[in-house]
């Protein structure tokens, strides 16, 4: 049943639902479903950990190969046929053939990318739930609160618990978009699509020097408002802001063109991906004027961070998988409070030790074909969590 208790405000209400406490067979059935999900998570962890090590070592070897082959260009305004097909390094200011326009708002800028961001003033629903037992039933008390906010995506009010008084429009009258220059160069060299995609450091464009484009549009700060009163917007009102990435010409309000450093393969007057013998692809772009050593140092740091992030994700996936697969032991004793708590602690410790050991063992197998000595060391370390766990078991139980 549903029990509604309004707080006196249209923006908040409480709903209480109740259902009979699930029986043993029902809890056992739910646990069985969780075991299947745990098995999937457990197997996924092996795949993630194993492939991650191969990817990390392949990337590191490709970067070392690239560093040994890269050729610095002393001039970005002349194209040397001697460097055809070779991995080259250059740095210079971005340039584009023509500015990007948004005719709807009378705006133009000489940049690689121009993004129009449209937000609509809408109702947003928030939930805060808590469960408790009462009279042999499990009750769930959910507080729904509503607030009006600027959102870039349409919030579907049909999914609200109470849509009456909190209805949003189904679409925006003005759409967001991102315009990309079709021709981006550094000196005489044209950047590939992959390199242009890496130019994504967006900055908000100041609108202080622009006039209101239409009678029904008002400028306020760095926004264009489709609203009768921007200071007191109503649901359905719009505001539009603009962002740019890769300034490619001198601008009196924004300054000089942005400089970038590129490492890629020279093909005629184009900079395209370079395929290494290790099987990776090198097409690198960083903002600023960086040396070859600085670029590859940043790439190695990025590879290291990605490797550890995926290792952590793999370990967590394995820990969750083992926890779900062993949950059935908790379900079998969950009507005994003291025993239940002890079993829960034991299962968590078991999952922690096994996940750590298997993760280290999987990583060592991944290194076996590349660095055998490191693989052996990791395999020995994988035994440590089990030895530590066993040392805490009383001698009688070990016997």
TrEMBL record:
InterPro entries: TMEM43_fam (IPR012430). Keywords: Endoplasmic reticulum, Membrane, Nucleus, Transmembrane, Transmembrane helix. It is found in: Endomembrane system; Endoplasmic reticulum membrane; Nucleus envelope. GO terms for cellular component: endoplasmic reticulum membrane; nuclear inner membrane. The chain crosses the membrane at residues 32-50, 308-330, 342-361, 373-393. The keyword Phosphoprotein does not apply. One of its GO terms (biological process) is nuclear membrane organization. It is a multi-pass membrane protein. Belongs to the TMEM43 family. PANTHER family: PTHR13416, TRANSMEMBRANE PROTEIN 43. This is TMM43 protein. It comes from Dasyornis broadbenti (rufous bristle-bird).
């Amino acid at each position: 049943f549903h029990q509604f208790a309004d707080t006196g405000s249209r923006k908040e209400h409480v709903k209480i639902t109740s259902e009979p406490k699930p029986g043993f067979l029902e809890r056992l059935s739910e646990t069985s479903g969780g075991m299947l999900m745990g098995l999937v998570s457990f197997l996924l962890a092996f795949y993630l950990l194993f492939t991650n090590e191969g990817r990390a070592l392949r990337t590191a070897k490709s970067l070392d190969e690239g560093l040994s082959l890269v050729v610095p260009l002393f001039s970005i305004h002349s194209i040397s046929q001697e460097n055809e097909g070779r991995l080259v390094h250059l740095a210079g200011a971005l340039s584009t053939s023509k500015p990007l326009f948004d005719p709807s708002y009378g705006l133009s800028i000489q940049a690689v990318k121009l993004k129009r961001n449209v937000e609509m003033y809408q109702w947003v629903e928030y939930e805060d739930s808590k469960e408790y037992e009462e009279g042999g039933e499990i009750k769930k008390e959910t507080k729904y609160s509503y607030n009006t906010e600027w959102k870039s995506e349409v919030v579907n009010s049909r999914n609200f618990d109470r849509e009456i008084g909190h209805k949003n429009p189904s679409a925006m009258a003005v759409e967001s978009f991102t315009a990309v220059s079709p021709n981006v160069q550094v000196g005489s060299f044209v950047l590939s699509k992959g390199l242009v995609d890496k130019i994504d450091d967006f900055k908000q464009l100041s609108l202080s020097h622009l006039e209101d484009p239409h009678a029904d549009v008002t400028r306020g700060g760095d926004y264009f408002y489709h609203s009768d009163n921007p200071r007191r917007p109503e649901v359905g009102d719009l505001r539009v802001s603009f962002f740019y990435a890769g300034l490619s010409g001198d601008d009196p309000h924004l300054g000089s063109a942005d400089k970038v450093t590129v490492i890629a393969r020279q093909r005629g007057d184009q900079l395209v991906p370079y395929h290494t013998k290790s099987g990776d692809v090198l097409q690198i772009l960083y903002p600023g004027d960086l040396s070859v050593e600085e670029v590859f140092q940043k790439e190695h740091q990025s590879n290291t961070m990605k490797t550890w992030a995926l290792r952590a994700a793999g370990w967590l996936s394995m820990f969750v998988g083992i926890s779900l697969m062993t949950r059935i032991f908790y379900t079998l004793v969950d009507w005994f409070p003291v025993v239940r708590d002890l079993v829960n602690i034991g299962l968590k410790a078991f999952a922690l030790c096994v996940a750590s050991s298997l993760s280290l063992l999987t990583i060592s197998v991944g290194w076996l074909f590349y660095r055998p000595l490191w693989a052996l060391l990791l395999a020995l370390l994988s035994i440590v969590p089990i030895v530590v766990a066993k040392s805490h078991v009383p001698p009688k139980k070990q016997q």
